[in-house]
Amino acid sequence: MINKNNQKGSIIYFALIVLTMIVGASLALTSILISQIRIVRGMQRSVVSFYAADTGIEEALYILMNEKVIPTNPVTKSLGIPSDDIKYTFIITVGGDECGPNYDHYCITSTGQHGNVQRAIQVGG
């Protein structure tokens, strides 16, 4: 015959073990999710920086095609989104070997920046 007095309180130990396992799994899952969020945020900033650099290329091409005066100094502009620090800088070089020997008319170098992430594009013609 089983003595019921020896089994009193055993459910508390069992519940404590199950609760510890659940908390451990929750902490592990939270750690994984936080690292994934950081990775996605970095990718998002990288993509935004690339498109900001592309905006600089487009503006420089517009200046080359439509303006009579070409800026010789780097031009830096903000995209005008108050909550984010998104900006781009471009420089137009006429002549020279900036982009390589095959591009002797002009070279455009544009850098986009979002937070601490920078991406650059170089175009020549």
Structural description of this entry:
- The chain is an alpha+beta fold and about 120 residues long.
- It has one domain (about 5-125).
- About 45% of the residues lie in helices and about 25% in strands.
- The protein has one helix and four strands, in the order αββββ.
- A four-stranded antiparallel beta sheet has the order 1-2-3-4.
Brief summary of the model shown:
This protein has one helix spanning 10-66, and strands at 75-78, 86-94, 106-114, 117-124. It has 125 residues and is of the alpha+beta class. It has one domain.
Distance between the termini: 95 Å
As residue ranges, the low-confidence spans are: none
Report mean pLDDT, rounded to a whole number.
Answer: 85
User: What does the overall shape look like?
Assistant: rod-shaped
As a percent range, the share of strand residues is 15-25%
Note the main attributes of this structure:
125 residues, 1 helix, 4 strands
